[in-house]
# Entry
Amino acid sequence: MRHGAGPRPVAAGLPRLGFGAAAIAQPPVPASQAMDCLGAAWDSGFRYYDTAPMYGDGRSELLLGWMLRGRPRDAYVLSTKVGRLVRPGHPDTARTGAGWIYDFSHDGVLTSLDESLRRLGVDRVDMVFIHDPDHHWEQALDGAWPALARLRDEGVIGAVGVGMIQAPMLARFIRETDIDVVLAAGVYTLLDSQARLELLPEAERRGVTVVAAQAMHGGLIDGAVQSQFRYRPVTEEIRATVARIARICRAYGVPTAAAALQFPLGHPSVGCVLTGPASQAQLRENLDWATTEIPPALWGRLREEGLLPPDVPVPALPAPRPWSIP
# Structure
């Protein structure tokens, strides 16, 4: 193992809260609103930004690049992803229903990264994630992974990661590669803590940092009606669980979203939680939730009612500005 079992560079130094730049790239969000949100995030002290070619077919990287233009490059951490090439009008886009195509090959990854750098207007990114290789395991392992590992070993990028909504496959990546960081989406939350069974112990054993995303499941945990769970319609059972969690949080005067946003940080392997606001108002809410004091008794009550496993770790009091570089 190249790095040994201790924490790995770059990924180990992430702030506890990062800015996920997916929502700002959605078509209903005007560019002015997105830029106002990004500017407010920077002014608030956010120093880790995550993006991907898939988000808005390159729009996220362009918006983020505009905001970062002129900022000192060593003042922030930047990650993007590979596995999709932005190709509007390509015949294969009929399968994806978007302006991108899948490509986890060695050459495809290098092309993707080069195009991302141009959209972002930077000469380097700190971390690169292999993006949702669920049905492309062999190509990701034989093509994407070696290409990124070589760039890391040559010092071109700081860390290599993989991001997915499947905890077991993320654990497999940790076992079979020398990956630095994993982005676990929606698998270590108040509603779904499956990552504790295999992924988080494996990450802890190998010194791999976990970045947790979708802690609020697209607003589901906070009562959003138009939401999904694991990208599928929400069942009545899940809605009932959300209602039980909300009832307990209300009893302690804590916003449900605050408990959801902070929960993943209780595990020692989770180094960062990504939040994805699309407006200044949402950004302010997220910052309030990130610094809300949560009584230990609230976590105990969730355990008592079977809403959290009895052995799951919970966070201590939040840091005043967990989104700034440590």
